[in-house]
């Protein structure tokens, strides 16, 4: 399986988590904000998973293995 470049994956995770922090993902309002649905889909495809929670866990593992900023529970997104 091809893996996305860490910079691209990091950007996807940061953007998804920023939207999720606003409550968009938790409320399930992807119909009102299509970007959260698009990001979830892209994360799943990029990580070979079918659930966004698994996609995020996989992405965090891959990013940790690749080095760079730790995104786990980060309050502020890293600059790319």
CA(first)-CA(last) distance: 25 Å
Largest sheet: none
Overall pLDDT: 82
The 3D shape can be described as: globular
Strand content: under 5%
Which H/E pattern describes the elements?
HHHH
How many helical stretches?
4
Output the structural class.
mainly alpha
* Share of helical residues: 55-70%
Number of extended strands: 0
Unreliable residue runs: 73-80
Helix and strand topology:
Layout: H1 6-21, H2 24-27, H3 34-47, H4 52-66
Architecture overview:
The protein is mainly α. It contains four helices and no strands. It has helices at residues 6-21, 24-27, 34-47, 52-66. The longest helix is centred in the first third of the chain and has 16 residues, at 6-21. The model is unreliable at 73-80 (pLDDT under 50).
Produce a short descriptive summary.
The protein has 80 residues and is mainly alpha-helical. Helix content is 61%, strand content 0%. It has helices at residues 6-21, 24-27, 34-47, 52-66.
